[in-house]
Design brief:
binds zinc ion, Arc Repressor Mutant, subunit A, about 45% helix, Dna Ligase, domain 1, about 130 residues, two-stranded antiparallel sheet
Length: about 130
């Protein structure tokens, strides 16, 4: 019974706390920001969990303009992100029109199994109004 093992239970709780914190936040968060928020979870543990959660596809890794990696608990399915370069707000974009374009390019070059990744960077309404 894995739940009777205190170490396993603690690990499950830490993972759940990280996912929960990400779900409650519209912004993507870095490992450091999560560690500051959940001060009972060590930074190394936060890093380890984020890596695993991203591998499992439970969270998305988002690269900030300054090169930092931040994480967000997005909904399932193919989507893109619209990211505010000022405050880090993330909007999920579920209507993707890149597939047709990708297929056309792939056909032209004889590629099969083509996937794409794209993120849009901009300044959100709030930040644009502040300046
Ligand atoms: Zn903003
Ligand atoms: Zn797409």
């Amino acid at each position: 019974m894995p739940t009777s093992n205190p170490t396993t239970r603690r690990k499950t709780e830490q993972r759940a706390a990280i996912v929960d914190a990400l779900r409650k936040n519209d912004r993507a968060m870095t490992a450091q920001e999560l560690h500051d928020l959940l001060d009972s979870v060590g930074l190394a543990t936060v890093y380890r969990n984020l890596g695993r959660l991203a591998e499992d596809g439970e969270i998305d890794a988002i690269r900030r303009p300054n090169g930092e990696t931040a994480y967000r608990a997005c909904t399932a399915g193919h989507h893109h992100h619209l990211i505010c370069r000022n405050c880090g707000l993330v909007v999920e974009l579920h209507d993707c029109s890149l597939d047709d374009w990708g297929r056309k390019i792939a056909d032209k070059h004889g590629f099969v199994g083509v996937e794409h990744q794209a993120e849009l960077l901009g300044t959100c309404e709030k930040c644009a109004n502040r300046s």
